[in-house]
């Protein structure tokens, strides 16, 4: 175990339950190999659990059916959510070969039978509006994120994006895109209060048509 990896927070067992061992293995793998493979920055390992793993896992209740993580990168949030929610069918879309190689390795090692890795950009998806939920974390601002995520979701499906403290300003700046893609029930929800040291902000919206 890397010396600088923070101790596992108590909330980890609460969030992952019976799947905690897979979460521990993935976190350790990311701590050991993440920086050298260009997946995370050198300052992230000491806060890997709190800032990245639990920040992703806390959103698990938002998902159902068939879900897609666009720009999955190191597997945040897609792989973390796939561990926490094995009942959901996950597609991880990522254009960079070294990242899709990592994702595929982790899927195999962790025996995640509910995950498919697709090397492409979100806008290159050609199988239509087949997803019940689309998610993304730290990919881009809403106004640029919506055009390549909303078209993947069936009418009545949801967008669930993990965002930073400036998400309110992003929503204001994306008003045109919100109208264009027929988003309704747009909200910013704060999850994890009382569970995580730093709660997660989640942008949620329904794709109405």
Rg, rounded, reads 16 Å
Gross morphology is: globular
Tell how many strands the DSSP assignment holds.
7
Residues in helices, as a percent range = 25-40%
Give me the secondary-structure topology.
Blueprint: H1 10-16, H2 20-33, H3 48-57, E1 66-70, H4 78-84, E2 89-94, H5 97-109, E3 115-119, E4 131-137, H6 142-145, E5 153-163, H7 167-173, H8 175-180, E6 183-191, E7 200-207
Parallel strand pairs: 1-2, 1-4, 2-3, 4-5
Antiparallel strand pairs: 5-7, 6-7
Helix pairs in contact: 3-4
List keywords for this structure.
single chain, 209 residues, alpha/beta, Rossmann fold, 7-stranded mixed β-sheet, 24% strand
Describe this structure in words.
The chain is an alpha/beta fold and 209 residues long. A hairpin with an 8-residue loop joins strand 6 (183-191) and strand 7 (200-207). The chain has helices at residues 10-16, 20-33, 48-57, 78-84, 97-109, 142-145, 167-173, 175-180; strands at residues 66-70, 89-94, 115-119, 131-137, 153-163, 183-191, 200-207. The protein is 33% helix and 24% strand. The chain has a domain at 62-207: Vaccinia Virus protein VP39 (Rossmann fold, 3-Layer(aba) Sandwich), CATH 3.40.50.150.
